[in-house]
Design goal:
4 copies of one chain form a homotetramer. By secondary structure, chain A is mainly α. Chain A is built from 9 helices and no strands. Helix content of chain A is about 75%, strand content about 0%. The first copy, chain A, starts with a helix and ends with a helix. In chain A, about 55% of the residues are buried. Chains A and D meet through loops of A and loops of D.
């Protein structure tokens, strides 16, 4: 299933590498030796989690149904216009961000406001519905970054002892 | 929108009264003077919340798409069979349960295991897909019960002072 | 109890007005007519919530016990140094941010990274322990801002209909 | 730190084995081959998590401060009497329950209502303050049970493929 969801994202224009770049931007200020390669591996690990796979499948199905006009009103318009008070996309994506603890959730909140990298492009894409996709990308990047933060800490403690 | 979601639930066989009965079962042990009428009013208040309305619209759309075979695999089978490790239905419903604080979330967990009243009937319905619906009903009942718990407390404190 | 927690915050150097200023910064870009007075009222409303009062009492008690050397190791050092992977302060504050839905949680994540206004001053205060306080302030400001976002939406919808 | 928190719990009368017994009760209906030994190993794994260790340290410090009359009012009375609308103990414990996804949170809600095994004894202990402890035990048992549920699923899928 991991390969399947990675392919689904690629079909929607999101490469694993683009998500890793956001994780790099989040984590590199705290972690000078960090490489993009480390972030790619961390994103790969996040994709292993079943909860992440289920969230991606569900969110992208809703985007697609909205894009192909297969939803009834008023939900169709709410999702198509990414209605500001519709919070289901953020709620779902936060279950991804939360997998490695609260650090992921605060990073997600930051990305949700700043919309860096590929997230910005998705959020403003014309003629498409990426209401869930942009939040899912932010959720995966946040989780990958939180995972690296925990890992860094473990290495520091191992050096001390 | 409130009337719309109440009607959507009715079309799926869930009356407001049935949800109120579950809230009554949850709350009456702590609140001897409680009536079913109080619980109906409390459920009505929960339906006022936009976050609740959005969750109902989204969850029931997914149930319907699964029932009408409009979802792609593997999500179609996951939702149709209510795959035990698929937690998106619970996650969504918990955002409802959570509206009046942690008491709602613990009640939701209890209902998820015990499946009392209408929840039991939905969970075992043949030829239909109620994967999101049963959790949504549990979420609304839990929120309505938590709201009554907070209200009771306020009245007690008013009597003391 | 509302007055009590407002006074507790004042004793720790945090005025209601300083929290309202952060809420103003968060919300004014989306809400051109917003005044600081609106934000002060919104912060006052957040303080009415029992869950908020309990969180403030608990968090400030932990800060104080750490400051007065009444905690055992290793918790004493963890709280005194605001150990980066200690997430209990953020978890507690997010229960405040979450009261008006997911918008509050994303704002909290943003503030946690940007540390604007009084939050910045608290986070870097010497000789004091404000590990919980800075997150609590961010949580209250986020909740007050989310409350205003929901209110604005209601007014817009009332104008349309 | 893992050994330290296991010892802290033992000092408060909670053995790892008692927590494993609750996890066994939760999980054995779905998992016929499950042994108590499996549950002990799963509880051990939960104790490895830093977020769990931090929550235990913080919760037990608050219980102890309340028991030794080192908290100010009104928090002292709220924690000593486990005031029904004080939800900080449940909120903290749910961050533990949540580590292996939503299954843990629903199990936690169930335990919070049913109070089986050692949780019952703690909840009714005279002359002591176990306001945080009983929820922490429920949180650990729920997480350990959720971990076993995910593991079982993986084994089933490995057999199929």
């Amino acid at each position: 299933m991991k390969e399947l969801v990675i392919n689904l994202l690629k079909q929607r224009g999101v490469k694993l590498r683009s998500i890793a770049e956001i994780a790099y931007d989040l984590q590199s200020p705290y972690n000078p030796g960090l490489t993009l390669e480390d972030c790619i591996i961390s994103v790969e690990q996040v994709f292993e989690k079943r909860e992440v796979q289920h969230t991606i499948l569900t969110g992208l199905a809703l985007d697609k149904m909205a894009e192909e006009d297969n939803l009834e009103e008023p939900l169709a318009t709410i999702i198509k216009t990414d209605e500001p008070l519709y919070g289901i996309d953020e709620s779902l994506a936060m279950t991804i961000a939360n997998i490695y603890g609260t650090i992921g959730v605060t990073s997600f909140g930051y990305l949700d406001k700043k919309k860096t990298g590929i997230i910005e492009e998705l959020d403003s894409s014309e003629g498409r519905v990426d209401t869930f996709l942009d939040d899912i990308v932010a959720g995966i990047a946040s989780a990958a970054s939180a995972r690296l933060a925990h890992q860094l800490k473990k290495e520091e403690q191992a050096e001390i002892s």
